[in-house]
Amino acid sequence: MKHIVIVGATSAMAHECARIWAEEEATHFTLIGRSAERLQRVADDLKARSPGSEFATLTTDFLKPEAIQTAVDAAAGTRRIDIALIAHGWLPDQRVCQSDLNACSDSLAVNGLSPALFAEALVGKMEEVNYGSLAIIGSVAGDRGRKSNYSYGAAKGLVERYAQGLQHRVSGTGVSITLIKPGPTKTPMTRHLQVRGGSFARADSVARIIVHAVKVKKNITYAPPKWWLIMFVIRHIPHFVFKRMQI
Amino acid sequence: MTPLSSWGRLEAPLHYAVPLSREKASEQISGPPFPGIAYGMGRSYGDICLNPRGTAWQTTDLNNFISFDDKSGLLRCEAGLLLKDIQKVVVPRGWMLPVTPGTQLITVGGAIANDVHGKNHHRFGTFGDHVQYLRLVRTDSQIVECSTTKNKDWLAATVGGMGLTGVVLEVEIKLRAVDGPWLETETLPYHSLEEFFELADSSEAHWENTVSWIDCLGGRQGRGIFMRGNPTTASPDFPPQSKQLNMPFVPPVSLINKLSLKPFNTAYFYLQTRKAGRGISHYQPFFYPLDNIRNWNRMYGPKGFYQYQSVIPRINGLDATRAMLDAIQRSGEGSFLAVLKTFGKRPAAGMMSFPMHGVTLALDFPNKGPHTHQLFKQLDAIVQEAGGRIYPAKDARMPKELFESGYSRLDEFLQYRDLGISSGLSRRLIGS
């Protein structure tokens, strides 16, 4: 039975990925999150969809390096990991981050530092057995700093650089690392933005892209793919033009 | 504020949209601003799911299974789960929702609030007949748990209760066992309403599902195509078709109009007549023929459309149906989406459930303003005279008197009403 570890398992995107994996085949899941109650709810949902699957739930502190190491040790201790997905995140209000350094620090820690530490710990376990696929959810926001969300974007940019470094390190081994950069997606995290309209992808369609990218061991993928083109343009807009844009 | 519309696309009023989350749902519902209405997939046709300038509690994030027992077929889930997701999970395991309407792209909560029916009403009743338990949150934070044994009156008020008794958060449904996803089907053309009723009556004993397409412009006699089906253990050697089509934009005028309707209906009738006979069908195209065309409601153009669905007691069924078809024919209005079907004798599950022993006619009408309303007035008179009623899930315009005469348990139902909940429909027909 496959062993899939999901960090931030109660996030909408992670939950949708888990549903796809569970419905594909009976799987042993290790679900890592902050709230035992919410993890149990995700496990119950997956169990009903896939009665042959097994579930272990783990709560941990996402910001303490030792706690992260302990959680990953526990997850990898039971059996070899086939797939690990790092999916947690929090979209802060940029203006609050500017006036309150605690909020700014939280955003950088939750969205950048914490996923990087989880990735480091998980890749360590995978390297030991020379096997495993790690997927990390970044964001299109990490592609270029913008005044409307750089406290979030900078953290996601850190994740991307970290993933690149890890990819370089594991190249030629049995370990693969996939960075997924979703565009705006309909999840509870982006709720306050959805109200203003605009185009949001559905979480289940982004999840299908993630599952596929992991399966074919892509290095990097935008979800939906059109964001590759959009971000290509945005990254290449010269600064003297970019600085006048309200984005 | 967010624009929200229902399936008829008659309007897209602004709402204060509040996506419910599992952890906070009770607080969200009992907190201001009032009043609100639960909004799922927006698949009802009129204003039953809308609350213009008010709050819409969006339920589609409440989409978790809670448990499913393969032995008993008991399913517990959150109210925003789609029927499609249930079928996808349970059908391969030998179970199926006992009652589903013509689309599976609706939430469980919506199926309960409208007490939806399907092609098998004479055998399985309505969706509400299979609800074993539900948990309701009221806007005064009271939680009402009701089941077939406890608080039965609350269950009867909430099933078909148009979302007005509280917000359903959690549900238990008893599924039915099936041998597989296939149905044996038979397609029979009929050339008069008498023939339709004979077919319907004679099919009830041996066929679980019956429905018919009727050509609303097919002459006084009433011609159409009768379809019936039974679950089967057989499985054919072809895979279920799953081609997804999409109506990508709203055309400037309705594609269903006087020019297109008559030739289309005639062509469809003869095509189906040629294909008549026995066959085998996957449950998805059989139960949900239109789900394969995403956004099909857009073909009625920017003004949207009405659906008129009435039920007439069996005894007056033939005469009233004929009178309605006459009126529609004279007006030249209508659509090829027209359904004629009989309901069985079972007592209704809910106080405000739509089905009754009789015959139901459902027809789409492109919105042409006063001209369309003129026709509805004539149809209303026929329905009222025949002792029938109109389906609130489809309605955007019925007169209050017809609502009151059609639903005799209205006063009893209103005792269970949550006054912090209000919809376009409730303000129109109940006054608040």
Feature tags:
heterodimer; A: 247 residues; alpha/beta; Rossmann fold; 7-stranded parallel β-sheet; two-stranded parallel sheet; 9 strands; B: 432 residues; alpha+beta; Uridine Diphospho-n-acetylenolpyruvylglucosamine Reductase, domain 3; Alpha-Beta Plaits; 3 domains; 8-stranded antiparallel β-sheet; 21 strands
Structure description:
The complex is a heterodimer of chains A (247) and B (432). Chain A is of the alpha/beta class. Chain A has one domain (2-242): 3-Layer(aba) Sandwich (Rossmann fold). Chain A is built from ten helices and nine strands. In chain A, the strands form two sheets. Chain A has a seven-stranded parallel beta sheet, with helices on both faces. In chain A, β1 (2-7), α1 and β2 (27-33) form a beta-alpha-beta unit. In chain A, α1 (12-24) packs parallel to α2 and α5 runs parallel beside α6. The longest helix of chain A has 29 residues, at 101-129. The mean pLDDT of chain A is 95. The radius of gyration of chain B is 21 Å and the shape is globular. The two termini of chain B are 22 Å apart. Chain B folds into three domains: 2-60 and 421-429, no CATH class; 65-178, Uridine Diphospho-n-acetylenolpyruvylglucosamine Reductase, domain 3; 182-403, 2-Layer Sandwich (Alpha-Beta Plaits), CATH 3.30.70. In chain B, α9 runs antiparallel to α10. Chain A binds chain B through residues 12, 23, 38, 41-42, 44-45, 47-49, 51, 188, 191, 195, 197, and chain B through 1-2, 17, 19, 21-23, 61, 64-68, 70, 75, 77, 88-89, 93.
List the topology elements.
The complex is a heterodimer of chains A (247) and B (432).
Chain A (H helix, E strand, L loop, with lengths): L1 E6 L4 H13 L2 E7 L2 H14 L4 E6 L5 H14 L4 E4 L7 H6 L1 H29 L2 E6 L12 H21 L4 E8 L2 E2 L4 H4 L6 E2 H13 L4 E4 L2 H11 L2 H4 L5
Parallel strand pairs in A: 1-2, 1-4, 2-3, 4-5, 5-6, 6-9, 7-8
Chain B lengths: L1 E2 L10 E6 L5 H6 L5 E4 L15 E4 L6 E4 L5 E5 L4 H8 L4 E2 L11 H6 L7 H4 L6 E7 L5 E5 L4 H7 L8 E8 L1 E2 L4 E9 L2 H12 L4 E6 L9 E8 L13 E2 L11 H17 L2 E6 H5 L5 E2 L10 E9 L3 H15 L6 E6 L14 E9 L3 H16 L3 E2 L9 H7 L3 H5 L9 H6 L3
Parallel strand pairs in B: 2-4, 3-4, 15-17
Antiparallel strand pairs in B: 1-2, 5-6, 6-10, 7-11, 8-9, 8-10, 12-14, 12-16, 13-14, 13-19, 18-20, 18-21, 19-20
Helix pairs in contact in B: 9-10
